[in-house]
Each structure stands twice: as structure tokens, then as C-alpha cells.
């Protein structure tokens, strides 16, 4: 990653912690980075372009550094913890005109995490894959929905704790769904 782009992205996140998205200007960014406006426009066409780059880079970094795909909880909880670290920034993005891009990346990160978890579970446990797309969609929608609810609530509750409880509640449900079993057929 280009150091100047990374520096501008880091400053963007800092500014999002301090003020709403709509109040962030190119001038704010270039002053903090100690670069000129032309440097900003060399790398980004505007603030929304920087926002999209920053969200994508953050997403890639969080997945790369935090996700172990052994269990659902080991995939979801680290993401929830990283979201908590940037709660104010994500609230500012969520409440801005750039909300759609944030939701798009939320769906992408949720899909990636869930699909990676399911692929690992299928491979590790020798499970059939014919129901995997259904299970992936249900888990993705659940995880993304929880994050959207958390943002709608002003990030007012402990997201990692909630996600952990959700994973415990869902324990075994994905395996049963992949096997095509109902609760009754497996004695649950």
C-alpha cells in the first residue's frame, strides 16, 4: 500500500472519530498529512473515493489479521471487536450520504467471513455442500443485520458480547442445515 494513501486513510479515520463525515474536508486531510491538495487529488478523486478506499482497506486488514475460520465465533467476534474500536467512525459513516458504500462493504465482509467459515466447516467435517449457499445467506444476513441494528442503536451495546451469544445460540444449526436435518430428525 502506498504510504501517502495510507496516511490519508489513517487521517480520514481519525477525523471520523472527531466529527461527522459531512464535516470532513480535503483541507482537513491535507493539513494533517502535511501534503498539498494536488497530492490528495493524485490519489483520490474526492472524499467519497477516500472513504470507499479506507473502508475497503480496513475490511481487508481486519479479515487478514483477525479471522480464523475454525468456528463461527472465531470469525465473527474479531470483526465485532474491530467495529467497536471504530464505533464513532462507523456511526458517522452510517449516518452520512456515504451510508450505501458502508453497507455494501458490510455485506461483503459478512459474506466473506461466513462463506470462509462454511467452506472450512465443509472441508474439515466432510459435510455435503449442496445446502451451503442457503446457510451462507442466512448467516450473512444475520451477521450484517446485527451490525446494522447496532449502528441504528447508536452502537450502544456490546457488539462482541452480543455476537458471541448469537454464535452460541446458533451452535450446531449450520451443521444440521448443511446435512439437511431438522431439529426433530437429529433429536434436538
Describe this structure in words.
By secondary structure, the chain is mainly α. The chain has one domain (47-179). The chain is built from 10 helices and no strands. It has helices at 3-18, 26-33, 37-43, 47-66, 72-85, 87-94, 99-125, 132-152, 159-170, 173-179. α1 packs across α2 (26-33). The protein is elongated, with a radius of gyration of 19 Å. The termini are far apart. The model has no long low-confidence stretch (mean pLDDT 82).
Number of structurally distinct domains: 1
Percent helix range: over 70%
Report the portion of residues in β strands: under 5%
Main sheet specs = none
Question: Which consecutive residue ranges, at least 5 long each, have pLDDT under 50?
Answer: none
Output the structural class: mainly alpha
Q: Write down how many β-strands occur, each being a DSSP E stretch of 2 or more residues.
A: 0
Q: Could you tell me how far the N terminus lies from the C terminus, measured between alpha carbons in angstroms?
A: 49 Å
- The protein's oligomeric status is single chain
Please write the string of helix (H) and strand (E) elements: HHHHHHHHHH
**Which word captures the global form?**
elongated
What is the C-alpha radius of gyration, as a whole number of Å?
A: 19 Å
Q: Mean pLDDT, rounded to whole units? A: 82
Number of helices: 10
Domain HTH tetR-type: 2-62
DNA-binding region: 25-44
Organism: Candidatus Eisenbergiella merdavium
Keywords: DNA-binding
